Amino acid sequence: MARANANGIEIEYETFGSRKDPALLLIMGLGAQLTLWPESLCEGLAGRGFFVVRYDNRDVGLSTDFERWGVPDLMGAFAKLMKGEKVETPYLLADMAADATGLLDALEIDRAHMVGASMGGMIAQVIAASHPQHTRSLVSVMSTSGRLGLPMGKPEAVAMLSAQPEGTEREQLVAHGIKLRTVISGPGYPTDAAAMRALVERNIDRRYYPPGAARQYLAIMASGPRVDLLKTVKVPTLVLHGEDDPLLPVECGRDVAALVQGAKIETFPGWGHDVPEQMVPRLVESVSKFCKAA
């Protein structure tokens, strides 16, 4: 892995494949480190002829954090938003989009296919609309427009976004991480218990940093819906979504596809809100086929 100075911060990143190939930027979701993109997916896409870059968003993993801002009062912020009041936040999704394009600039990459999952999909949407000169295509994965009135996720899945571990001991953190991943997964792609534990342990040992996730959540809230923004997207767009996503129901993905003129959408029965190894071959096929055509 390596680190680049971009948009005034340091960003941790990793690459796969040949720099001579078209670039493909993988953007992860809320509180998720770059390691949540399976290496098999990265290597699979590189094998299809892409220069793959995955990275830690600001405030997560080994990229710059915003510790000095402290832990936000998310409930208080939500109440302010409901009243139409301004919410103070250290950054917005637009800043995170500028991080991504800044990373491309640092790597001397003119344009890339933007592939974002969940919050990463939101960031990718902003990039496609606001930085089209950097964007070859947009692949919005298990994400949403943020439109008010869209179906809510299952209560147990939504609750996990703010749930806390029972304690600070490593095993308690691991148990909490396993519970989170179990709750947001889909019925069609169960994860092997040992593999799930290994993934959770790896990420906790790399960096366990919930305050950053809280600030990212605040950024999502303060940035507002992207309904009008998505209508301006002109680059080729593909939406991928699980039909059994318990956190952002499939209707959220369909809404994104409906808002972007000419967008294509693929939905998958049994897929939840994660990137299980069993889905990797299908994702490699869908993403590589679309991006090559774009």
Helicity, as a percent range: 40-55%
Which architecture would the CATH scheme give at its second level?
Answer: 3-Layer(aba) Sandwich
Instruction: Please give the oligomerization state of what you see.
Output: single chain
Helical region count?
Answer: 11
Based on secondary structure, the structural category is alpha/beta
Name the average pLDDT.
97
* First-last Cα distance: 29 Å
Quick one: overall form?
globular
Helices and strands, in order, run as EEEHEHHEHEHHHHHEHEH
| CATH fold descriptor | Rossmann fold
What does this structure look like?
The chain contains 11 helices and 8 strands. Helix 1 links the parallel strand 3 (23-27) and strand 4 (51-55). Strands 1-2-4-3-5-6-7-8 form an 8-stranded mixed sheet, sandwiched between helices. The protein has a single domain (2-293), classed as Alpha/Beta hydrolase fold, catalytic domain (Rossmann fold, 3-Layer(aba) Sandwich), CATH 3.40.50.1820. Helix 2 (74-82) runs parallel beside helix 8 and helix 3 (93-106) crosses helix 4. It starts with a strand and ends with a helix. With 294 residues, the chain is an alpha/beta fold. The model has no long low-confidence stretch (mean pLDDT 97).
Concise description?
With 294 residues, this protein is an alpha/beta fold.
How do the strands and helices of this protein lay out in sequence?
Blueprint: E1 2-6, E2 9-16, E3 23-27, H1 39-47, E4 51-55, H2 74-82, H3 93-106, E5 112-117, H4 119-130, E6 135-141, H5 155-159, H6 170-184, H7 193-206, H8 210-223, H9 227-230, E7 237-242, H10 250-259, E8 264-268, H11 280-293
Helix pairs in contact: 1-11, 2-8, 3-4, 6-7
